[in-house]
Amino acid sequence: MEADSVNPKLAVVKQQLANYLIEEGRPVDAFPFLIMTIELAPSQPDYHFHLGNFLFLFEEELLREKIISKDRARSFMHKSFKQAAKFGPANFDYQLRYAQSFFDFPDSSKEEALEVWDNLIRKFPDRSSTEKDYFKLCKARVLLELDRKSDALTLLNSVSSSTLDSAKQSLIHQVNRKAEKKKKNKQTNI
Fold first, then answer.
1. 83 CB contacts (<8 Å, ≥6 apart)?
2. Fewer beta carbons under 10 A from the terminal one: N or C of the chain?
3. With contact defined as beta carbons under 8 Å apart, do 8 and 33 qualify?
């Protein structure tokens, strides 16, 4: 607090104050300090990344105190991860969390999500085979949301990591369920 009173324009001090308040169980009080970090250092990817994580982790507390609406919190979280990815293009963690944030924000563009997952796969080709299979699963999930079942199934069939088999089977089940539902709808309309 003393450092902040000496120079209130240091983003790192605001970040440390926010961290302290979070550790003390006061996330609602930490929120304004996190906002100030991105205002003071708008091109620093770490601050955007931390704000996105904060919004994801403490959404319920912010909603309970009526600080922000659910839609606004999710939109802001998604935007924060997007900014972190933009300002830290070589940072895998920023790129991955931005791609994942499309699942956390239902109103996000699924076409944009597909593009972000493609970019992640292209920009980080040296990841393990399990990680690459995880990317495929996520991309298949987006394809399913876009009702591109055939493309999703093709991608799912290329996943070979046994550790991801449960997630793969769940998505394949969704593809089959959507296909059955579509078939029933066609028969009903005849």
1. 38, 45, 48
2. C
3. no
List helix spans (H) across the chain: 2-6, 11-23, 27-40, 45-57, 59-64, 70-87, 92-104, 110-123, 129-145, 149-157, 165-189
Nearest Cα neighbor of 112 from 76, 77, 79 is 79
* pLDDT single digits (tens) 80-118: 999 999 999 999 999 999 999 999 999 999 999 999 999
Mapped onto helix, strand or coil, the DSSP state of residue 58 is: coil
Report the candidate in 54, 104, 60, 58 with the shortest Cα–Cα distance to residue 78. 104
Quote the CA–CA distance of 9 and 107 in Å, as a whole number. 35
Residue 187 has pLDDT above 80, yes or no: no
